[in-house]
């Protein structure tokens, strides 16, 4: 009988430990409820926007129905208070239920410098608007237009542009915790 009681206690202990670990894993897993801008507009998250002139103009004059809905529901009611510096917006995002629109490089730099590993793993990235391709303007009938085009394409093909981008711009922080 002592063997049966001991075996029962040990199996109960293992069952309790595995059940507790499962609950903790569920509580620590990031949520997938916000996948699009319309999900963000419907969520209880507060929102902030990087204080730049083009962000104010874009959100105010956007023709995209989802962006217009997000602007009317979350951005316009708060007025100018919603536009803030990246350090303040990223700190609010780190400490509470907050979404913040920031230029990628500025955001990546602040995340790398201030966020802990579990905080990095809980982040989700959405693209609020698609920026146009960067172009090099030239005058009409410019004789070296074809030369510029070939050299730029060559630099992209051999990886020179990618190398310079990796060198000068902060890259997306990696989630080392394994949860993200």
UniProtKB/TrEMBL annotation:
Keywords: Cell membrane, Glycoprotein, Membrane, Receptor, Transmembrane, Transmembrane helix. GO terms for cellular component: plasma membrane. It is found in: Cell membrane. The keyword Transmembrane applies. It is a multi-pass membrane protein. Signal peptide: none annotated. Gene3D superfamilies: Periplasmic binding protein-like II (3.40.190.10). This is Ionotropic receptor 75d. It comes from Procecidochares utilis. The lineage of its organism: Eukaryota, Metazoa, Ecdysozoa, Arthropoda, Hexapoda.
């Amino acid at each position: 009988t002592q063997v049966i009681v001991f075996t029962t206690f040990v199996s109960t202990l293992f069952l309790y430990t595995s059940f507790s670990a499962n609950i903790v894993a569920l509580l620590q897993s990031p949520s997938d409820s916000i996948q699009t801008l319309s999900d963000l507009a419907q969520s209880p998250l507060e929102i902030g926007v990087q204080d730049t002139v083009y962000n104010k103009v874009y959100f105010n004059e956007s023709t995209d129905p989802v962006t217009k809905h997000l602007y009317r529901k979350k951005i316009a009611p708060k007025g100018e208070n919603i536009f803030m510096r990246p350090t303040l917006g990223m700190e609010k995002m780190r400490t509470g239920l907050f979404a913040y629109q920031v230029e990628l490089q500025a955001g990546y730099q602040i995340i790398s410098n201030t966020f802990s590993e579990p905080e990095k793993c809980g982040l989700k990235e959405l693209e609020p608007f698609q920026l146009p391709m960067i172009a090099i303007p030239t005058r009409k009938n410019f004789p070296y237009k074809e030369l510029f085009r070939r050299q730029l394409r060559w630099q992209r093909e051999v990886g020179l542009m990618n190398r310079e981008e990796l060198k000068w711009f902060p890259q997306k922080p990696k989630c080392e915790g394994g949860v993200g």
